[in-house]
């Protein structure tokens, strides 16, 4: 890969990370459930002095640490992964910052109390933006955010497919969000997991599969 192509791919991935942060902020701001991978982070942010972006950063750094641990006990050499691990750090910082920045912007632009219709508009629009941004990262094909790379490192250790482990990982995070929100609220309610969470879980993947083939011209541009 030439330096020119590499710079284009990393810029595209950076753009996808920025848009992913904005999309997650948009979905979460609707207050009818956040994305599965962000659900536990969001619950912890509601019951701490940390912002949603800050809890997301802590969570992603923890995943990077776990990646290093799993690589150490797995068959792969660390030298096969160290670049991919290091590049995650600046990207998760940008990702977490964009969650808080986009949330701040939404608070300025939208009323404190949202109608259910507006909430669904935010969820649908945010899910479309999330799908588009994930599609950009697929086209860029140079790096992964820590959640996906964690699954990539972990799934060979248990001899299961990437998609199987990714689905289980999302379910685990949603279950964690439900349990912790029950504990924090004295078993009075579930926070962060609602119909918007289900919508995102069901629609994001298929939408990505629809978008990626339509970005062939962008893929061709990267390899010029």
UniProtKB/TrEMBL annotation:
InterPro entries assigned: YczE/YyaS-like
Name the record gives this protein: Membrane protein YczE
Coiled coil: none
Membrane spanning stretches: 12-30, 50-73, 85-106, 118-143, 164-184, 196-215
Annotated keywords: Membrane, Transmembrane, Transmembrane helix
The keyword Membrane belongs to this UniProt entry's keyword annotation: yes
Source species taxonomy: Bacteria, Pseudomonadati, Pseudomonadota, Gammaproteobacteria, Aeromonadales
Keyword Nucleotide-binding: no
Native source species: Succinivibrio dextrinosolvens
